[in-house]
Amino acid sequence: MAAAQPWTANTTHFIAGTWTPATTGRTYPNRSPWSGHILGHAAAGDAEDTERAITAAHHAFPTWSRTRPAERQRVFLNAADLLEQRATHVLAALAAETGCGHHFGTVQLDFAVKLLRQAANLAYHPAGELLPSDTDGTQAMAVRKPVGVVAAIAPWNASLTLSGRAITGPLALGNTVVLKPSEEAPYTGGTLWAEILHQAGLPAGALNVITHAPGEAGAVGDTLLASPLVKRLNFTGSTPTGRRLAEKAGRHLKRVVLQLSGQNPLIVAADADLTHAVDAAVYGAFIHQGQVCMCARRIYVERPLADAFTERFAARAARLPTGDPADPATVIGPVINEWALALLDRRVKEAVGLGARVLAGGEPAPPCYPATVLTDVPDEAEIAQSETFGAVVVVETVDSAEEAVARANHTDLGLAASIITGDSRRGLRLAATLEAGIVHINDQPVNDEPQMPFGGVKDSGWGRFGLGFAAEEFCETQWVTVRDEPRTYPF
Ligand code: ADP
After folding, report:
1. CA gap 334, 352 in Å, rounded
2. Does residue 186 line the site of ligand 1, with CB under 6 A?
3. What is the pLDDT of residue 128?
4. Does the keyword Chaperone apply (predicted)?
5. CA distances from 190 to 177, 182, 398, 480, 489 (A)
6. Residue 313 in this model has a pLDDT that exceeds 70
């Protein structure tokens, strides 16, 4: 049997419905995190390219925003079918470009297809409300209107779904979009979406994609933020980058939706089913080699279950198959790049230097970082303080779940959390005290569905994705009144 062809693609910008190289003609190599091979070359865009994309989106807005609901619905339903038909190709591309294994690839694909089908429905959602008025003869309305051009900046780690949700809600509500995928995922986070939606019938200019070389995101982001034609920006990525963007957005009084880092706790109560707790923790900590913003980073176990849990959990972690993301048996694939691998290594070594104990893993196996379990991590260690994007998790024993909640809340981040307990009512009571945008009881923290209000509190971000909630973020509400007869004024 012939060996499968390695996945390859050269990519350009997509502006006004046309595949367009960078104005300067520059490209950069898109490398596989597993093999290091060049998969293709991507356009290395700049501020000028970004301005062209914004102009295209601005010109497309009047037509797309007035497109009949049936037509908008048809585009998203077509796109869902096209994406499904290309499943094998998409999974291969995700593995090659981002080191995404088969399981997380199918999770992304499933989400993206559902997202498009739900977006098709959004075309028929009510566009406002009638409001009671105390002014006789006045009919009042709150009318929801698309804002115009929405900018979207997405990360590489779940490139298909995170770029998808960054553009689909805004488009379905009648906005036009400029998408800037991560430099690590120009195809699966950018080009692929343009291909599918264009083929599905989205008119030229409604979606534009700009890519850029590593280290050159600033010029694209700054242009998007400074343009008066861009009315909103949504960003998914790290808290430090999100904070910089929000500071700049403030200067331009531009509203932003921010989905940022997580330092997500998983709390195991003493009455938990041990097997379920271990299964959930292994999945929640190590899915996509720990490179999901919702991954469990800290596991707090009530003392009576702590030894048994920790022993079984560390043993399972140590056995997780590590290697080629194209092999369906692999659980721990490559880290996205050598800088991320070096950061993981440095943070684990720093924690160990401060007294942490390694219960599994703890040494890099380039380009992978094997599943690693630490305990006795002091609060001052970087790994205890901020999100560490990789297959490293901290397990600690607590005297009570309430203590776990207090420790979980003792961080600036508040994205997702989960609690495993035999008493789901107690779980609900604990959930109410957790400072997190998302809490799952008797599950691990990595979950998403297109219709759910996805987002964090504290430094994990502002605003919510989720199609039913996107209208809040990507529309303006206009108060309109109408009278059929003259009104009497006092002077
Ligand atoms: P990650 O660790 O996931 O790469 P980042 O926050 O660095 O997190 O990246 C998320 C997205 O933000 C990527 O698309 C990246 O290119 C983009 N980005 C990084 N720096 C900037 C910047 N200064 N302006 C705009 N976008 C940026």
Report:
1. 23
2. no
3. 95
4. no
5. 12, 8, 44, 38, 56
6. yes
Q: What is the DSSP string of 427-442?
A: HHHHHHH---SEEEET
pTM over 0.85: yes
Distance CA 337, CA 482 (A): 59
- Residue 190 DSSP one-character state: I
pLDDT in tens, 35-51: 999 999 999 999 999 99
pLDDT in tens, 162-211: 999 999 999 999 999 999 999 999 999 999 999 999 999 999 999 999 99
Nearest C-alpha neighbor of 119 from the set 448, 447, 450, 453: 450
Determine the pLDDT at residue 307.
Answer: 98
Q: How far is the CA of 180 from the centre of ligand 1 (A)?
A: 10
Distance between CA 217 and CA 294 in Å, rounded? 24
Mutational pocket test of ligand 1: of 187, 241, 248, the residue with most ligand atoms within 8 Å of the beta carbon = 241
Q: Do strands 149-153 and 176-180 pair parallel, antiparallel, or not at all (unpaired)? A: parallel
Q: What is the pLDDT of residue 6?
A: 54
pLDDT in tens, 380-427: 999 998 899 999 999 999 999 999 999 999 999 999 999 999 999 999
> Over pLDDT 70: what percentage of the chain?
99
- DSSP-derived 3-state class of residue 62: helix
Among 97, 153, 187, residue to substitute to test ligand 1 (most atoms within 8 Å of Cβ): 153
Cβ atoms within 10 Å, residue 346? 13
Residue in 190, 219, 217 with CA at minimum distance from that of residue 19? 190
- In the chain, what is the greatest distance between 2 CA atoms, to the nearest angstrom? 90
Contact assessment for residue 122 and residue 450, using Cβ atoms and an 8 Å cutoff: no
Nearest CA to 245 among 216, 211, 221, 213? 221
Strand 372-375 to 392-398 pairing? parallel
